[in-house]
Write a structure and sequence with these properties.
The complex is a heterodimer of chains A (about 220) and B (about 750). Chain A is about 50% helix and about 5% strand. Chain A is mainly alpha-helical and about 220 residues long. A two-stranded antiparallel sheet of chain A has the order 1-2. In chain A, helix 5 (about 60-70) crosses helix 7. Chain B is about 65% helix and about 0% strand. Chain B has about 750 residues and is mainly α. Chain B is built from 26 helices and four strands. Chain B has a domain at about 130-475: Na+/H+ antiporter like fold (Up-down Bundle), CATH 1.20.1530. Classes of the chains: A mainly alpha (about 220), B mainly alpha (about 750).
């Protein structure tokens, strides 16, 4: 913690402007980052995998992958990192900020697009800008994996039906010989319109620093 | 033409009913008077048709003995009147758009009460026993059983604050200020002491679930606001019960000490937690019982109703909160019961609950009207006006003040518009009236009752009627009309896990973390005890279900239900999804029907780490072929399907996939046809979106068993078509179910 103490104030301010968190929240997240990384400057996939609470999560891999995905860094790069620093960690977390009373409609709209894009990136694993049937099937399979009992067939059927729905809502006049190659970002946004992502996809970030000491992670 | 005929028929029927009802009340009394005078000796004589004069009359071919059936007759007549009224309103569309149903019903009650009073008869009053024991439980059970758990638990904190703190504030503010008002010389009510005023305040301060449901149901407001106001109206019962009993006890004693106040607080926890505990116990019992009902499916719904009712009554025995007990019972019981019972029982439960609650609500409002006319009243201008003003004021202040505090803890803050709706939606209703009715008879009581009735009328009429235009004016977010699609469903679940995961990475034990823990606990321990069936068979059942559901959906579409679901059917054209580039196989899949969606959603819900496993119940019911379901028309259907498949497979390019290409036609079944006839009649019905599903490639070996499923599925559409109000399959939706 010693070296990073000097990072306070100025850097936090800069980060706060970029990500929209408050200084307190950044401080708390930094503490957590230190915990996860074992006081190093970067964390790798192994660090995140070793969080015990995540073990039961069916989409653990996708979540961890999302942190290392370059597309979530508000830039235009593709590919993934091997390790990420605190700044990248914070950027990913900033996708989960809730809107406040002062958020305007345009800001809410932008927020929603950002969150939907995050989800899209999680599904589109090969980075080609489309969620294909195979990728979507994988998503559904992973979701159902922890139930243990559902067969491949059911997952496939559900994914097929879901793709059908996307296709039919977005491209209603497809001829019998057209292909539907995959869900683009626009289509994805369209089908998730009803979910109001800006109010649903958020995590509570602590403003006050907690003095919990986590044994291990 | 037909509408007008129906309208006039409706009116005449209603008028007739008025007269009959009034007449019955009159003759009933007249008969009672007549029977009162003769001695008991004459009664058996009358029954045998002889009179006291020893002349032997001829054997009476037709006798009139109304007294024998008087009570059930009148009850039935009242209920019939109530329902005809309800029916009548919907024949007159213009009125029902402006005025909420509850207002119209109260108005009818006023009329009926007026008629009865004009005939100088004693009208049936909204007796507290009748209300609390018979009329209220169905409504609460209906609300509790179909409570949207997700929204409720997410907003639990807010709801509790509004329910407990808000009601306390209302009670003390109104009570205290009324006491101050009573001190005014001009009011001539100086004899009302503080405790009575506080008692009055506690009666009038509670938001009423019946009124809220009745009004909010029609304005289709967004889920958050709905659950806030409705949840508050349910949970404030504990507060009301405690305050009411507290002040009632002490208004006899005269003073309240600190110790008593402390006991009151303790009593609040006992009442609320005790009520919930009672409900949970009965809920678990009900779930456990439903585990063994596989051999007597017909009585399954009864268990649900009886256990819930017993929960309510048991709570009432100990003066615990009956409403909370009922809600807890319904909420706890539901996931396990639904996994165990057959689909038909599930539908029965749903429709019975809706039916009973509808009847109850109608009766409550009509009786409210009748009781108003009946009196006895003690109109005191100052008292009543001040009560009204203070109620409104305290509600607004309470909501605004509490929201200010709550918003500090909420992530999604409540805006000013939300606050307005919450404040404006604080309607008072029949519970307040019945509680007032329970007070010991006195001058004060009549005054209180008058004031209570005035407040109820004001909130129901004025606020009830104006809330709809206000909602439009303020552009408050409405309830989402469309059902959740499969994608939304997938992503709702996905989000749950994502947010739990992110929360875990943050190291913060949030809402999702505990929900996840609860789910896992539920899965590992509780479900073993409360859900019947062998787990080892599950995979088989699931794949089986999938095969079945495709067939059902196809059959459903063929029997014409697809035509009734216009919204999802976008295009009739076939659409393709490329399976894999390497395979280069064009799979011609067609647009799926909404029911198919529902089925798939069911599978999703069942398996995406949720405890509800309706799919099991569905499978088991259809797995054991119910001999009563088989029908000749089933054979007919299979013949038709084979024919269609034959016709269609010639145009398919994919080998093992059954294709069905429907050129804007929906083949329907003429249900009126006699099942014995061999002819298959296809009525091509033009529709915008007609689709058939691709049959499952592994369809052959499962062809025998799902017949009963198909049958029951086919019966579903016709039932649905005659369905008056509730939307089917809404119980699975995350949105609030309408009534």
């Amino acid at each position: 913690m010693g070296a990073t103490q000097t990072r306070s104030g100025q850097e936090y301010q800069e980060l706060a402007e970029r990500t929209g968190f408050s200084a307190e929240q950044i401080r708390n997240l930094h503490k957590r980052f230190q915990q996860l990384s074992g006081n190093e400057d970067t964390i790798s996939r192994e660090h995140l995998k070793s969080i015990p609470a995540l073990a039961n999560n069916p989409i653990r891999k996708q979540i961890i992958e999302a942190f290392f995905d370059k597309r979530n860094q508000h830039g235009n790069e593709l590919g993934s990192y091997e390790e990420i620093g605190f700044e990248e960690f914070l950027m990913v977390m900033s996708h989960f900020r809730p809107p406040t009373l002062r958020t305007t409609e345009e800001e809410k709209e932008a927020m929603r697009k950002e969150k939907v894009r995050f989800l899209f990136n999680m599904h589109d694993t090969d980075g080609d800008g489309k969620i294909t049937l195979v990728e979507y099937r994988k998503v559904v399979e992973e979701l159902l994996s922890k139930s243990g009992t559902i067969g491949q067939e059911a997952a496939k059927a559900i994914a097929d039906a879901a793709m059908l729905e996307v296709a039919s809502t977005n491209v209603p006049n497809m001829g019998p010989d057209d292909f539907y190659e995959g869900i683009t970002l626009e289509h994805f946004e369209e089908i998730l319109k009803g979910l109001e992502m800006e109010t649903r996809m958020h995590v509570r970030f602590l403003d006050v620093s907690t003095t919990n000491v986590y044994c291990g992670k | 033409m037909a509408v007008r005929a129906a309208r006039s028929a409706g009116f005449t029927a209603v008028l007739l009913l008025f007269l009959v009802l009034a007449g019955s009340a009159w003759t009933g009394d007249a008969h009672a008077a007549h029977n009162g005078t003769p001695t008991t000796q004459e009664d058996p004589d009358q029954h045998h048709g002889t009179n006291a004069t020893n002349h032997r009359k001829a054997f009476p071919v037709l006798a009139f003995n109304y007294d024998h059936v008087r009570k059930p007759f009148e009850i039935s007549l009242w209920i019939l009147l109530a329902l005809l009224m309800k029916l009548g309103f919907h024949i007159i569309p213009r009125v029902s758009h402006v005025v909420p149903e509850s207002c119209l019903l109260i108005f009818v009650g006023l009329l009926v009460g007026g008629v009865i009073k004009a005939m100088d008869e004693k009208a049936p009053v909204l007796d507290s026993k009748l209300f609390f024991l018979y009329l209220l439980p169905p409504i609460i059970l209906d609300a509790g059983y179909f409570l949207p758990i997700r929204a409720f638990t997410e907003n639990m904190g807010t709801i509790l604050v509004f329910a407990v703190v808000g009601t306390l504030w209302n009670a003390f503010f109104v009570g205290g200020m009324m006491f101050a008002v009573c001190q005014i010389e001009a009011a001539r009510v100086g004899h009302v002491d503080l405790l009575s005023c506080l008692l009055f305040g506690s009666i009038i301060s509670a938001v009423d679930p019946v009124a809220v449901l009745a009004v909010f149901e029609e304005i289709h407001i967004n889920e958050l606001l709905h659950i806030l106001v409705f949840g508050e109206s349910l949970l404030n019962d504990a507060v009301t019960v405690v305050l009411y009993h507290l002040f009632e006890e002490f208004s006899h004693a005269g003073t309240v000490t600190v110790g008593d106040a402390f006991l009151g607080v303790v009593s609040f926890f006992v009442v609320s937690l005790g009520g919930i505990l009672v409900g949970v116990i009965y809920g678990v019992l009900g779930a456990f019982t439903s585990r063994f009902t596989s051999h007597s499916r017909v009585i399954e719904p009864l268990f649900v109703f009886l256990y819930s009712y017993m929960a309510y009554l048991s709570a009432e025995v100990f003066h615990l909160s009956g409403i909370m007990s009922l809600i807890a019972c319904g909420v706890v019981m539901r996931p396990y019961v639904e996994a165990n019972i057959s689909h038909k029982s599930y539908t029965t439960i749903k429709y019975f609950l809706k039916m009973w609650s509808s009847v109850s609500e109608t009766l409550i409002f009509i009786f409210l009207g009748v009781s108003t006319v009946e009196g006895p009243h003690n109109w005191n201008w100052i008292f009543v006006i001040f009560t009204l003003v203070l109620c409104l004021l305290s509600r607004v202040l309470g909501v605004v003040g509490l929201t200010f505090i709550i918003n500090k803890f909420r992530i999604v803050k409540l805006t000013k518009k939300d606050q307005f709706i919450v404040a404006y939606g604080g309607l008072r209703g029949a519970i307040a009236f019945s509680l007032g009715f329970l007070l010991t008879d006195s001058e004060k009581k009549h005054m209180f009752l008058t004031a209570i009735i005035t407040v109820i009328f004001f909130t129901v009429f004025v606020q009830g009627m104006t809330i709809r235009p206000l909602v439009d004016l303020l552009a408050v977010k409405r309830k989402k009309e469309s059902k959740a699609s499969i994608n939304e469903e997938i992503h709702t679940q996905f989000l749950d896990h994502l947010l739990t995961g992110i929360g875990d990475i943050c190291g913060h034990y949030g809402h999702h973390h505990w929900k996840d823990k609860l789910n896992r606990f539920n899965k590992t321990y509780v479900k073993k005890w409360l859900i019947a069936g062998e787990r080892s068979n599950e995979p088989q059942l699931i794949s089986f279900y999938n095969k079945m559901e495709m067939k059902q959906a196809m059959m459903l579409v063929e029997s014409g239900s697809a035509a009734k679901l216009p919204s999802v059917m976008a295009a009739a054209s076939a659409q393709n999804i490329q399976q894999q580039r390497e395979e280069a196989r064009q799979q011609k899949l067609l647009k799926i029907s909404k029911t198919r969606e529902a089925e798939i959603r069911k599978v999703l819900r069942a398996n995406l780490q949720k405890t509800r496993q309706r799919l099991r119940s569905y499978s088991r019911h259809d797995l054991f072929m119910d001999p009563f379901e088989e029908d000749m028309s089933e054979v007919r259907f299979r013949k038709q399907k084979v024919e269609m498949e034959r016709r269609v497979s010639s145009s398919s390019s994919a080998g093992s996939v059954y294709l069905a290409r429907c050129d804007h036609k929906v083949y329907t079944y003429d249900d009126s046809q006699s099942p014995r006839s061999g002819a298959i009649q296809l009525n091509p019905r033009p529709s915008d979106g007609a689709a058939l599903l691709d049959g499952s490639p592994q369809g052959s070996e499962s062809s025998a068993a799902p017949q009963s499923a198909d049958q029951s599925e086919r019966q579903k559409p016709s039932r649905c078509l005659s369905d008056p109000g509730p939307n089917e399959d809404e119980e699975e939706s995350i949105f609030f179910s309408s009534r």
